[in-house]
Amino acid sequence: MTKMIGQRAIASLLSLLGLMILVFFLSRLTGDPAVLFLPIDATEEMKQQFRALHGLDLPLIEQFARYVWDLLHFDFGESLRKARPAIDVVLEAYAWTLPLALITMGLVITTAIVLGSLAAFNVGGFFDRLVSIVSLVGASAPDFWIAIVAIVVFSIGLGWVPTSGVGTPLHWVLPIAVLFIRPFGLVVQVVRGSMLSALGAPYVKTARAKGVKNLPLIFVHTLRNGMLPVITVIGDQAAALLNGAVIVETIFGFPGVGKLMIDSILQRDFNVVLAAIMVTAVAIFIMNILIDLAYGLLDPRIRH
Amino acid sequence: MSEPLLSVKNLSVDFHTARGTVHAVKNVSWSISRGETLAILGESGSGKSVSANAVMNLLDIPPAEIVSGEIIYEGKDLLKVDYETHRALNGKKIAMIFQDPLGHLNPVYTVGWQIVEMMTAHGRPADMARARALELIKRVGIPEPEKAMGKYPHQFSGGQRQRLMIAMALMLKPDILIADEPTTALDVTIQAEVLALLKELQAETGMALVLITHDLGVVAEIADRVVVMNKGEIVEAGLTREVYHNPKHAYTRKLIDAAPGKGEIKLLDPAAPLLLDAKKLNKTYGSFAALKDVSLTLARGQSLAVVGESGSGKSTLARTLLRLEEADSGEALWKGRDLITMGRSELLGVRRQIQMVFQDPTQSLNPRMSVYQLIAEGWDIHKLMPDKSKRRAKVIELLEQVGLSAEHVDRYPHQFSGGQRQRIAIARALALEPELIICDEAVSALDVSIQAQVIALLDDLRQRLGISFLFIAHDLGVVRDFADTVIVMKSGEIVERGPTAQIFEAPQHPYTQRLLAANLDPDPDVQAERRASLTHG
Q1: Locate the ABC transmembrane type-1 domain: which residues (chain A) (predicted)?
Q2: Which residues from B are below 8 Å from A225, CB to CB?
């Protein structure tokens, strides 16, 4: 187990390095920040000055070498826009994205597991069909559309919650609700399928022959076995949320890392983009290790 | 005789499947009293497990439907009581153990937890359950009960897992224990131990034992009474001895006649030319020695059986000879050429001459290929039968050789029964006109009556076509009927070898003697004699 985690860590570090190279060079291909950043009537001299100040006049390879050198000292450079260390800007945004992702995934996991398991147990019944339809709709509805409709109905129409921004707990309701729908639909379907096959396993028959009651039969005997494929999907969905829910954060004006990333890309704020990507990658890498640990925790055969 | 403890009366169960309704059991009645052992004997698909599953409320309804009947226990009809009443009986009054203890124990919980749960699920306090679990784990013969409680099912051997299942079933001192093929997946010596344990525990507790099995030997060893099932119906019922010695129904007679181990023992033709000469084969996996200095010879038309329990290295031997595994050292001369060091292209030619038939035809036949494709595939690989127009006729000829017919050519494996599938696998091997066929437990998964047919077919091929057989098996009865020479393997070594008659009638090595003693005879009297000699000797 420890060996496996170690191997995963090394592989993740290598891919982080690859990612860093890729993003650095790709971002330089999109346009000149001096043109974008300075006013439209800026003189060539002003542009030169700007480039010199930020090291943008150096050869690309030298810019990259400097960048790597700084990274090794945990220095992601300054944000061009905000004149503050890029890493601070990113971590600040993460302070919004992280709770958003955690609360959403927490809700997804609990509801999807309970509903998916019960649906599998009552396979073919009314409850099963209802859950299947709801989850299918949830998994296939586009979130930008749901977000806009939700604003129209609940904010503008009914006036229950604010349209956008942050500040009160009410501001969180719509972003969480909209982000919840897709992963919920997907995870319910995976839970249902996985539980269906797990419920057909011989050990479930043994439990029934022992006189185990239905609830422990489902949630103690079967669920732990049925969770293994589910964890993979949960990890996948959580990764998408950690990336910052770009669309939903933008629509709701939520100052998370997704919105920050879009804004920084539009403004050619390279350092922020790079810092955001690196921090996200580290977060996903940590989460993958947690998932590996969860596998081992759930299934002793992996542990041994 | 007093009122029976449990009686199943006129039970009929249907299964509604996509292909129509199957009458799984029809008007089945049996009963059992305290302290008694009843065997329900039948082949696959006979419906022998259905009534027991109905007793335990384990049938999935739908697709199952209980058409009629009643199951009376303590004056109540178990088919009419509510779910909660039935649940409270399960495990507490009527417990059940199953064929495959690895699958039937939950892989992600410790065995201690699972055994303790048998009592806590019925409202007993956990500390009391733990004490009882320790006592029973010790009683069923698991070493270091305290430690065993904290281990997971995969950390035990097959026999130990079945012992743990038995311990779990006995936690609440049930009135009735239903055992569904409890020893089918176990080696013969382990089977004998588990059956003995069941009998001892029955004597201690006075519980009734319902044993579902396909094995006449198991019936002879343990059952007082037997009901014989065929196609969902009970065709015969009575005391075990009477049914064995005076079977009234044709099906029972057929079953008893098909039981292997009674035919004439074959003799090796001493003049037959040598085909395979293997010397000092060794194979290790890490620190585990799977083969230790194994040597054997095989002549044309010879049927050499390799017997031994799981893990003895008999399958590794076959795989090494076929070069599916690389031997660490040793040589295997096939008509004078060494298989172990042979180059790839020469090996391809030899592989045509040596074919293999595996245990499970369901897995060894590609489900997406028709019978024609399955059999003709080898010709493409070995560039034989270039005239494709003649292939179809040849496939039909091969099918007829194994007892199938032209109408089967374009069907797919799932459209056949297990025995027919194994015939297809044999036809596939024959297509390449092999000189040696290696059968790895080729008849173990088949019903007794089918087993006899397949053995007869193989023997016919041996005599007619002069094909040699390397026959890997754990069932000594089958080996006695088919082989002319026997090799006994244990822990990667050959402990004894000799003509079949010598091995079966005068075994020298203690391990061979132990294997033979554990092998169950279908005759209850023979079994009773053996038991008596064991207890007094």
Answers
A1: 94-291
A2: 106-108
Question: Of B258, B288, B305, which marks where a domain is finished?
Answer: B258
B252 and B302 in a common domain: no
The torsion of the CA quartet A18, A24, A29, A30, rounded to 10 degrees, works out to 120
Biggest distance spanned by C-alpha atoms of chain B: 76
Using a CB-CB cut-off of 8 Å, the residues of chain A touching B91 are 209-211
> For residue A123, what is the nearest residue in chain B, using CA coordinates?
B62
Check CB contact of A129 with chain B, cutoff 8 Å. no
Q: Which residue of A has its CA nearest to B172?
A: A210
Residue B535 maps to a domain: no
Domains of chain A in sequence order: 2-72 (no CATH), 87-298 (1.10.3720.10)
- Specify the amino acid at residue B447: D
Check whether residue B222 and residue B313 sit in a common domain. no
Nearest CB to B154; choose among A201, A216, A301:
A301
Q: Give residue A206's pLDDT.
A: 93
Q: Closest Cα to residue B66, out of B20, B19, B28, B107?
A: B28
10-residue mean pLDDT profile of chain B (537 residues): values are 83 84 88 93 86 88 85 89 90 90 91 93 92 90 89 87 91 92 82 88 91 89 92 90 88 85 78 88 87 91 89 88 88 88 87 87 86 91 84 89 85 82 88 90 79 85 89 87 91 91 90 87 84 68
Domain total of chain B: 2
A161 or B513, which is more confident? B513
Q: CA–CA separation, B348 vs A175, rounded Å?
A: 65
Contact B511, B488 (CB under 8 A): yes
Q: A304 vs B121: CB contact, 8 Å cut-off? A: no
Query: In A, which residues are within 8 Å of B106 by CB distance?
Result: 203, 206-207, 221, 225
Claim to verify: residue B279 and residue B229 sit in the same structural domain: no
User: Which of chain A's residues have a Cβ under 8 Å away from the Cβ of B92?
Assistant: 211
Residues of B in contact with A201 (CB under 8 A): 103
Give B222 or A245, the one with higher predicted confidence: B222
Q: Using CA atoms, how far apart are residues A54 and B503, in angstroms rounded to an integer?
A: 90
Q: How far is B165 from chain A (nearest CA, A)?
A: 9
Same domain, B296 and B220: no
Q: Name which of B104, B111, B155, B180 to mutate to probe chain A: the one with the most chain A Cβ atoms within 10 A of its Cβ.
A: B104
Interface test with A, best of B50, B57, B94, B106 (most A CBs within 10 A): B106
Backbone conformation region of residue B100, classed left if phi is above 0, alpha if psi is from -120 to 50, else beta: beta
d(CA B253, CA B241): 13
Residues B284 and B242 in one domain: no
Structure tokens at B131: 């004490």
Chain B environment of A208 (Cβ under 8 Å)? 56-58, 90
- Closest by CA position to B426, among listed B368, B370, B375: B375
Asked whether residue B72 is assigned to any structural domain, the reply reads yes
DSSP per-residue string spanning B316-385? HHHHHHTTSS--SEEEEEETTEETTT--HHHHHHHHHHEEEE-S-HHHHS-TTS-HHHHHHHHHHHTT--
Give residue B29's domain range: 6-258
User: Are B298 and B172 in the same domain?
Assistant: no
Name which of A194, A197, A210 to mutate to probe chain B: the one with the most chain B Cβ atoms within 10 A of its Cβ: A210
Q: Which residue is closest to B150 within chain A, CA to CA? A: A300
Interface ipTM: 0.77
CATH code of the domain containing B464: 3.40.50.300
Helix (H, G, I), strand (E, B) or coil at A207: helix
Residue B250 and residue B306 in one domain: no
CA distance A235 to chain B (A): 21
Which of A202, A213, A304 minimises the CB distance to B100? A202
Q: For residues A1 and B142, which has the higher predicted lDDT (pLDDT)?
A: B142
Residues B17 and B68 in one domain: yes
